[in-house]
């Protein structure tokens, strides 16, 4: 199990948090997501044999947010 923290621009309310959380959890291999709105981060627990950080970045960007 690996863990990474994505830095995400543009998340300001609770709906942002749930949109990003849901998008990341839909990825095969992601087992946990914790979004911190104040810091603009999402900490993701994942299996690196199933999912890549770039796939996570794409999933977040598809929701309309920018990865720093
Ligand atoms: Mo809330 Mo997030 O109105 O893009 S959904 S700021």
TrEMBL record:
<keyword id="KW-0479">Metal-binding</keyword>
<dbReference type="InterPro" id="IPR001802">
    <property type="entry name" value="MerP/CopZ"/>
</dbReference>
<keyword id="KW-0963">Cytoplasm</keyword>
<dbReference type="InterPro" id="IPR017969">
    <property type="entry name" value="Heavy-metal-associated_CS"/>
</dbReference>
<dbReference type="InterPro" id="IPR036163">
    <property type="entry name" value="HMA_dom_sf"/>
</dbReference>
<dbReference type="InterPro" id="IPR006122">
    <property type="entry name" value="HMA_Cu_ion-bd"/>
</dbReference>
<feature type="domain" description="HMA">
    <location>
        <begin position="2"/>
        <end position="68"/>
    </location>
</feature>
<keyword id="KW-0143">Chaperone</keyword>
<dbReference type="InterPro" id="IPR006121">
    <property type="entry name" value="HMA_dom"/>
</dbReference>
<dbReference type="Pfam" id="PF00403">
    <property type="entry name" value="HMA"/>
</dbReference>
<protein>
    <recommendedName>
        <fullName>Copper chaperone CopZ</fullName>
    </recommendedName>
</protein>
<dbReference type="GO" id="GO:0005507">
    <property type="term" value="F:copper ion binding"/>
</dbReference>
<dbReference type="InterPro" id="IPR049740">
    <property type="entry name" value="CopZ"/>
</dbReference>
<dbReference type="GO" id="GO:0005737">
    <property type="term" value="C:cytoplasm"/>
</dbReference>
<keyword id="KW-0186">Copper</keyword>
